[in-house]
Amino acid sequence: MGQGIQQAPVGQGGGNAFLDVFKVLFEPTAVFERVRERPRFLAPFIVICAFQIAIYFYNLPFMKAGMAAQMAARPAGGPDPSNFLFLGALFIPIGIGIALLLGGLITWVLTSVFGGDAKFQTLLRVCSYAAVPSVVLLAVVGTIVLHLQGVGQITSPQDMQPALGLDLLAPGPKGFRGPALKAG
Question: How many helices (H) and strands (E) in the chain?
């Protein structure tokens, strides 16, 4: 081959946006190169929403147990809000959309303030792909911890927020150590 002719790098094709959502966990550099060339927002947004909705319905027995414990402290005769828990799944895409928009906006503002040159849409798409590992990891770990505890251990809605800090390694820390380990 002559000096003016170069081969295109292997694996730099367009790729599938939905497949890139999963590849970002294993090949982040290649995925973000494709995002730079052809940014997409809808694929990671749909995957994150579908994953969170599936986890929501998988954890529904825990939410019902927490709601029942909360309703036991109220006077009898009121409506049972646990019958409407499934409606919470409708708000998952709205919350994720707002969070991704805020992430893209903050990234764009910081980039602009420090002299960078980037488009909001590109940064929004980068934020959406970058959110995939944390959303998947936190949802899976939280679900595992809840299921290890069991539905019988849910005595209030606060019990649905599993401890995911270093406090899991030292059960029953007292004083300053408790909050410090939870934060770590």
Answer: 7, 0
